[in-house]
Amino acid sequence: MEIELEPRVKALPYKVKATSRESPSQKAAHVLEADLRSHWSTATNTKEWILLELDEPCLLSHVRIYNKTVLEWEIAVGLRYKPETFVKVRSRCEAPRRDMVYPMNYTPCRYVRISCLRGNPIAIFFIQLIGVSVTGLEPEFQPVVNHLLPHIISHKQDAHDMHLQLLQDMTDRLLVFLPQLEADLTSFPDAAEPNIRFLAMLAGPFYPILQIVKERTELKAVILDGDLISCTFDPDMGFQT
Predict the structure, then answer these.
(1) Of 134, 61, 46, 146, nearest to 101 (Cα)?
(2) 2: pLDDT confidence band, cut at 50, 70 and 90?
(3) What is the pLDDT of residues 118-130, one digit of tens each?
(4) Could you give the angle at which helices 192-203 and 207-232 cross, rounded to 10 degrees?
(5) Among candidates 33, 3, 2, which has minimal Cα distance to 16?
(6) How far apart are CA 63 and CA 72, in angstroms?
(7) How many other CB atoms are found less than 10 A from the CB of residue 170?
(8) How far lies 199's CA from each of 180, 186, 192, in Å?
(9) Among 113, 126, 123, which Cα is nearest to 44's?
(10) Residue 23 carries which DSSP code?
(11) Separation of alpha carbons 123 and 71, rounded Å
(12) 88: β partners
């Protein structure tokens, strides 16, 4: 049951976030393990779903479904837990064989919803979500992803691709600065190359400076808060304004 993967991708850890239904002995959690002795089943024949949550955001390379008796399904993904905004990455299609592997083209996501439209009954042995973890990846980084993704895909056989590493450094290190970078990320497509260089500098050589500024800002807030308390209360005089 092994499949050949690109050097940098792997099966990613996830949990079952929710499901429309499960039978008492065939729980949804069974899809986590590649074990054909157990499976998830709804004991129904139509319109059921299972929602999976990855431990970290990722660029999703493939979805592998080891099917039992589902006849038709579709797949949607999202970066945030807002099912109404999920993007459909696999339209309604039949499940022609037991072991199905669908390419996802490095789609950014944290959540995967598999809608099982018909089955006899609806039942799945296990599911694997395959890709590359990108810590801190949020929808605000989508313009950066759009710019780097063609390069990442064209170097998918390179386990040490600099474009992927750059994206991972940016999302991991700059996540806490998203409010300050909102304008830069919103206008990113207008001048992609200068903006990517600017963000690369922030995530690279300028990152220690950002950390110092952040720590000083936090320390200043603590000091000001302490001054406020000491100035407004005196044991002998009571509260002062």
Answers:
(1) 61
(2) low
(3) 999 999 999 999 9
(4) 70
(5) 33
(6) 15
(7) 24
(8) 12, 13, 10
(9) 123
(10) -
(11) 10
(12) 76
Range of weakest confidence among 28-32, 57-61, 74-78, 210-214: 210-214
DSSP 3-state helix, strand, coil percentages of the chain (rounded to 5)?
40, 35, 25
Over range 173-201, report the average pLDDT: 93
> What integer is the mean pLDDT of 177-189?
92
Tokens of 132: 């590359």
pLDDT band at residue 225 using 50, 70 and 90 as cut-offs: low
Q: How would you class 224 by CB atoms within 10 Å of its CB: exposed for 0-12, middle for 13-18, buried for 19 or more?
A: exposed
Q: Give dist(CA 92, CA 28) in Å, integer.
A: 22
Distance CA 163, CA 115 (A): 33
CB neighbours of residue 138 within 10 Å = 16
- Token pair 């995530």 is found at 203
Residues 6+ apart with CB under 8 A from 66: 1, 34, 36, 98, 99, 100, 124, 125, 126, 127
Joined together, the tokens standing for residue 94 give 């039949």
Closest CA to 165 of 206, 123, 202, 135: 135
